[in-house]
Specification:
There is one protein chain. The protein folds into two domains: about 180 residues, FAD/NAD(P)-binding domain (3-Layer(bba) Sandwich); about 110 residues, FAD/NAD(P)-binding domain (3-Layer(bba) Sandwich), CATH 3.50.50. The chain has a five-stranded parallel β-sheet with strand order 3-2-1-7-18, with helices on one face. The radius of gyration is 21 Å and the shape is elongated. Helices cover about 25% and strands about 25% of the residues. It is an alpha/beta fold and about 300 residues long. Its EC number is 1.8.1.9. Keywords: Disulfide bond, FAD, Flavoprotein, NADP, Oxidoreductase, Redox-active center. Homodimer. It comes from Malaciobacter molluscorum LMG 25693. Pfam families: Pyr_redox_2 (PF07992).
């Protein structure tokens, strides 16, 4: 019987493993198919993690985290958890290989992945001029022109954020209306160095060995092609929450979620189902930052220790 089962091995899961084992829990297992570290290990440069003065890769930043957590007793199972159900006071976790585990509490820290837009060149230049995080990568384009693709709140908010760093921001959207809140739209329209490029489809992003050099958009009205010469393209067309483990066979969830499948939690990362917690990008209103995910994991672990008495 486990005290705590952690599903996911990113910053939230690892920090929860560290705090829970150091706080006295004996049987804590982190379920992660690959090497722990999370999505941040794919980032080439990290310069905004507190206390990390030198610019390092995401892989280097996360390198020592698993070792530190396992020093206090965290165990790592290289299994993918496909379902979680609660039977009385006990959670039953089933892995893809059919093996099952019982636990007194569960932390879901599976995260989310940016949704791809699907245009030509997106996969080729992802991470080499194409980004899904303005907070992470905006600084690299200081004083330069960039493009933002999307029409929701995130796209408009990030366009405004980038406008404070970059000389100009092209806001590229396939419609001529936005799905963002009226106040967000108003704020964007008042920002002088944002140019709206609407009612267009992105034909392709192109570049060379050094990365992105521009993108081409096609007008839906007359079919004309326009080229935007930018070294950076930021894509905000939504995220896919990795919530499969808590989904019932009928498509509902074992706890409350919002209409996008993000897990609803309180300030202690508790879900609507007693003993089930969620931390990091899988939860509502996540900031999508390593330091915030780590804070979530610590917050959840502290409360789990109290929950288990």
């Amino acid at each position: 019987m486990l005290d705590l089962a952690i599903i996911g091995g990113g910053p939230a899961g690892l920090t929860a493993g560290l705090y829970s084992t150091r706080g006295g829990l004996k049987e804590v297992v982190m379920f992660e198919m690959g090497m722990p570290g999370g999505q941040i290990t794919g980032s080439s440069e990290i310069e905004n993690y507190p206390g990390q003065l030198e610019v390092v890769s995401g892989l280097d930043l996360m390198q020592s985290w698993p070792q530190q957590a396992m020093k206090f007793g965290l165990k790592h199972e290289m299994k993918k958890i496909s379902s979680v159900v609660k039977n009385g006071d006990i959670f039953i976790l089933t892995a893809d290989d059919g093996s099952t585990f019982e636990s007194k509490s569960v932390l879901l820290a599976t995260g989310s992945v940016p949704r791809r837009a699907g245009f030509k060149g997106e996969n080729e230049f992802f991470g080499r001029g194409i980004s899904t995080c303005a907070t992470c990568d905006g600084f690299f384009y200081k004083g330069k022109e960039v493009a933002v693709v999307g029409g929701g709140d995130s796209a408009l908010e990030e366009a405004v954020y980038l406008s404070k760093i970059c000389s100009k921001v092209y806001l590229v959207h396939r419609r001529d209306t936005y799905r963002a809140a009226p106040s967000t739209i108003e704020h964007m329209k008042k920002t002088e160095n944002i140019e709206e490029v609407t009612n267009v489809d992105v034909e392709e992003v192109f570049g060379d060995a050094s990365g992105v050099t521009g993108l081409k958009v096609k007008s839906k009205e007359d079919g004309t092609i326009r080229q935007l010469d930018v070294p950076g393209v930021f894509i905000f067309v939504g995220r896919d929450v990795l919530n499969e483990p808590i989904k019932n066979e009928d498509g509902t969830f074992i706890c409350d979620t919002d209409d996008q499948g993000q897990v609803i939690v309180d300030l202690k990362m508790r879900t609507s189902l007693s003993g089930l917690y969620a931390a990091g990008d899988v939860r509502i209103d996540a900031a999508k930052q390593v330091v915030c995910a780590a804070g979530d994991g610590a917050t959840a672990a502290v409360d789990i220790i109290d929950f288990l008495g």
